[in-house]
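Hypothesis: this fold can be encoded by more than one sequence.
Test: take the structure tokens below, design a sequence, compare later.
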């Protein structure tokens, strides 16, 4: 897709530029060209291929991941030959015509009608063009021929692009078009539009007829807004330096991305228009203040960013405007305000989406580790990058490569082509005013003592391999970043799992092991759990932790974490809700709804807001607060329990005394028949052995096993009462006080089963005396994974949680079907079915060949463990940093869960929430788990 300034397609006016596409415009719009592939799939014959595309995804050549050379795999170096016939009209003979390639992987030799259009272009991700007016046959058919070598003849290009940590493709992967201008034309324009309305523009033209410049502003729909009074014009060496002033403009920033169109007219001596150009601009001022921070329009910014590749599973690096819009909207939905172009310039339509929707951008030249680009080719690439992207208001910085791949001889080249003189970063380096070091541990990232005066700005942190990183650890890191004066925020790695469709392997999705499974979203944009965690942690409306108790007064403390928006520009709705029962239709019942008056708070200010408390609010199950931004888009919905699990469940359960209970003990088994259900317990341990209903086995058994429990059983007693049967197990106590023998049942750990006449089965487990434990604390049962088809539950969801990724959930009735997704690697069905789920009220476990059961959890702050997630292979997670160890059993009820690490870090290096130590109750405040089962 061409730049906005060139986007006036098919406008047939003598003083404007026309665009004629020779290819399609993206992955969903291709044009068939003749094609020959040298070897690999579908090779050594002329056929057809869609352009633009990556030829591997069209069934040609061979797949490569960039680590091939290091891993000893064969580097495929096939080439492709393209032919395409096109016609141009007779009247174009008086025009200036360029052929533009937005991106070719990797070396491109271009011929028009058998003659070279210019030198071979090297570098995949950069727009290049040739002047071909003299090569064309006007009013006749012309033949375009392109030879594309997947591997460059320039070894530094190969190190920069072909050996990098991403998929390697070949082909004309971005659009190709003719750019048709009058003979006297504006070659290009570079604009610097400041927040105060000052405009400076470099207008490049070699026209001998040109005698003046006129400029005016219009809206994006073409409505003229104002003339720009030109204060100075300096002309030299084919460049006009023009300065002027706009009045009463609205500035551009990531929260309020106000855009204008600057219309530039090249005039002759009679003030007739020779050529006109339209450039979309935003008025904004960038300042990087040493020892202080990054300022936009006078506001110091905390960047909430992510790294993003140009990628789609079925088309590789060939994308579309619709995909760019989708990705930017998802980033904005996660409350991000920034994106880093890792590790190369993106499609122009992605930058246009950042301009229009509002994201700060770091634009990057492609290098990866050492050795760096050689200076000769690097200078060309820097020029191509800056010239193409210079006018995007979203771009705040240029990145000179990545992770030691920078060529320092190129650092001053950016300013040659950038009228705005934006600063240059070295990602993963302490350079000039910034420290962009990657993947810091929580405990040291704020304390690089030898660089403590630098602006801390990690361009990669919290690596998102599989289910680790991203949301896991972000709450701790962000508290540090938000409160560190010299922190400018940072960028997560990365946006999407880069799983490619293998046309050579029956269309399977391939992440090349652990190399490309790093996303917040799946390959097709499937939202993983961290998506919602990021959305909450990075909410610009920060609500202090709040718990609703009987003394609740409706007051919430709030902080405005916007940079340019007053809190009163946003809206908030409060809903007092009640939830349906396990056998209901999952509807959410709104008890009361009201609008909240958010306070007048400027950015960074703190205050309070009040929630209306309707009569009888205590009868609600929860309070929802939904915040919406100035455009009506949801920022986040917070949920606050009003009732405890026991209070909710007491209204749902009926421990009726209707019916009869029959008990017998035989051959070491306690058998209780009640309500058509037959329960079998071990006489020795009281563990549940079997459950039968109407003669059918429900395979829930072998529990409760108490985790990390080594106390011996003191006694197992069966009590048959008029309205229930109790089975009480008392363990030996470590309490050796004189009163122990008299009060052992009350001072020891115990298990108590209660069976009611209608078949309900209640379980109470009490665990005392364990204070700091590194293992699990709770109980577990067996239920074969093969017998589970799904789960419906009231609790936090719909995503699973880790200890250092608790945010982003909502208390609600949820329902998930069984899946065996390995996050980022296989399945790609979300939410994942297996794992830990917080704040359990009740769960209805659906059986595959059985009736399943419903469990009511009457204990607050209890996690449900649902089966054991399949971990990545040891080869792809050799240090098990993103493969937390799960407890024995299948279905568990626990009071503590593990944290998860990242590719590079153990969880305990990622902040307090990742610490493995847990504090538990003592004899005066034991751990209690109270469950009621309905079979």
């Amino acid at each position: 897709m061409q730049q906005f300034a060139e986007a006036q397609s098919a406008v047939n006016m003598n003083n404007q530029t026309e665009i004629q596409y020779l290819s399609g415009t993206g992955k969903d719009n291709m044009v068939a060209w003749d094609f020959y592939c040298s070897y690999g799939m579908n090779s050594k014959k002329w056929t057809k291929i869609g352009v633009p595309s990556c030829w591997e995804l069209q069934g040609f050549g061979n797949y490569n991941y960039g680590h091939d050379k290091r891993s000893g795999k064969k580097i495929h170096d096939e080439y492709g030959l393209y032919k395409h016939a096109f016609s141009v009209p007779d009247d174009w003979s008086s025009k200036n015509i360029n052929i533009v390639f937005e991106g070719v992987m990797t070396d491109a030799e271009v011929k028009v009608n058998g003659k070279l259009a210019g030198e071979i272009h090297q570098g995949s991700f950069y727009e290049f063009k040739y002047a071909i007016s003299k090569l064309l046959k006007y009013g006749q058919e012309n033949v375009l021929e392109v030879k594309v070598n997947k591997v460059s003849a320039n070894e530094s290009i190969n190190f920069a692009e072909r050996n990098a940590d991403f998929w390697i493709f070949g082909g004309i992967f971005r659009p190709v078009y003719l750019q048709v201008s009058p003979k006297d034309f504006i070659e290009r324009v570079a604009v610097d539009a400041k927040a105060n309305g000052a405009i400076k523009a470099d207008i490049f033209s070699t026209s001998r007829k040109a005698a003046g410049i006129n400029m005016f502003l219009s809206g994006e729909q073409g409505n003229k807004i104002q003339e720009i009074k030109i204060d100075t014009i300096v002309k030299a060496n084919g460049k006009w330096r023009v300065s002027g002033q706009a009045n009463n403009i609205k500035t551009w920033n990531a929260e309020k991305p106000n855009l204008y169109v600057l219309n530039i007219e090249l005039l002759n001596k009679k003030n007739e228009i020779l050529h006109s150009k339209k450039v979309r601009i935003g008025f904004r001022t960038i300042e990087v203040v040493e020892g202080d921070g990054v300022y936009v329009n006078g506001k110091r910014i905390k960047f909430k960013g992510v790294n993003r590749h140009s990628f789609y599973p079925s088309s590789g690096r060939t994308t579309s405007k619709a995909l760019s819009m989708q990705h930017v909207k998802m980033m904005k939905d996660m409350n991000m305000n920034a994106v880093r172009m890792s590790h190369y310039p993106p499609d122009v339509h992605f930058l246009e989406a950042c301009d229009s929707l509002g994201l700060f951008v770091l634009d990057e030249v492609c290098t990866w580790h050492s050795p760096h680009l050689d200076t000769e080719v690097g200078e060309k690439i820097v020029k191509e990058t800056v010239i193409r992207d210079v006018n995007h208001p979203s771009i705040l910085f240029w990145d000179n490569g990545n992770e030691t791949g920078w060529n320092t001889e190129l650092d001053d080249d950016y300013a040659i082509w950038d009228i705005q003189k934006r600063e240059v970063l070295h990602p993963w380096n302490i350079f000039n005013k910034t420290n962009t070091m990657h993947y810091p541990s929580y405990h040291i990232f704020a304390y690089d003592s030898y660089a403590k005066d630098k602006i801390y700005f990690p361009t990669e942190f919290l690596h998102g391999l599989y289910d680790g990183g991203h949301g896991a650890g972000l709450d701790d890191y962000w508290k540090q970043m938000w409160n560190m004066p010299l922190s400018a925020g940072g960028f997560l790695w990365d946006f999407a799992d880069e799983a490619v469709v293998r046309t050579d392997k029956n269309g399977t999705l391939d992440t090349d092991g652990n190399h490309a499974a790093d996303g917040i979203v799946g390959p097709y944009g499937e939202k993983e759990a961290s998506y919602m965690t990021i959305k909450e942690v990075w909410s610009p409306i920060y609500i202090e932790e709040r718990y609703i108790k009987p003394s609740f007064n409706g007051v919430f403390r709030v902080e405005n974490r916007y940079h340019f928006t007053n809190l009163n520009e946003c809206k908030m709705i409060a809903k007092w809700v009640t939830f349906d029962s396990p056998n209901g239709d999952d509807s959410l019942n709104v008890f009361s709804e009201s609008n909240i008056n958010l306070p007048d708070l400027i950015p960074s200010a703190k205050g309070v807001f009040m929630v209306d408390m309707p009569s009888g609010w205590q009868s609600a199950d929860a309070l929802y607060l939904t915040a919406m931004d100035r455009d009506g888009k949801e920022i986040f919905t917070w949920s606050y329990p009003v009732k405890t699990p026991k209070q909710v469940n007491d209204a749902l359960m009926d421990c009726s005394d209707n019916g009869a209970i029959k008990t017998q003990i035989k051959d070491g088994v306690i058998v209780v028949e009640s309500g058509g259900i037959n329960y079998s317990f071990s006489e020795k341990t009281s563990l549940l052995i079997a459950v039968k209903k109407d003669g059918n086995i429900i395979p829930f058994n072998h529990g409760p096993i108490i985790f990390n429990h080594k106390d011996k059983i003191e006694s197992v007693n069966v009590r048959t009462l008029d309205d229930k049967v109790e089975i009480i197990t008392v363990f030996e106590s470590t309490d050796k006080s004189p009163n122990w023998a008299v009060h052992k049942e009350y001072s020891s750990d115990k298990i108590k089963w209660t069976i009611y006449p209608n078949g309900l089965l209640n379980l109470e487990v009490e665990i005392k005396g364990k204070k700091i434990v590194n293992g699990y604390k709770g109980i577990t049962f067996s239920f074969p994974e093969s017998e589970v088809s799904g789960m419906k539950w009231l609790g936090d969801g719909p995503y699973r949680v880790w200890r250092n990724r608790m945010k982003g959930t909502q208390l609600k009735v949820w329902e998930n079907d069984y899946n065996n997704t390995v996050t980022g690697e296989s399945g790609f069905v979300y939410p994942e079915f297996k794992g830990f789920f917080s704040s359990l009220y009740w769960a209805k476990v659906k059986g595959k060949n059985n009736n399943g059961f419903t469990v009511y959890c009457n204990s607050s702050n209890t996690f449900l463990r649902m089966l054991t997630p399949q971990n990545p292979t040891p080869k792809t997670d050799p240090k098990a940093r993103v493969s937390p160890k799960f407890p024995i059993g299948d279905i568990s009820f626990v009071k503590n869960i593990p944290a998860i690490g990242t590719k590079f870090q153990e969880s305990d290096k990622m902040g307090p929430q990742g610490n493995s130590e847990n504090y538990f109750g003592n004899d005066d405040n034991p751990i209690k788990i109270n469950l009621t089962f309905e079979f």
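The chain has ten helices and 65 strands. The chain has six domains: 4-182, 188-281, 290-537, 541-643, 661-759, 779-911+924-934.
Hypothesis status: open.
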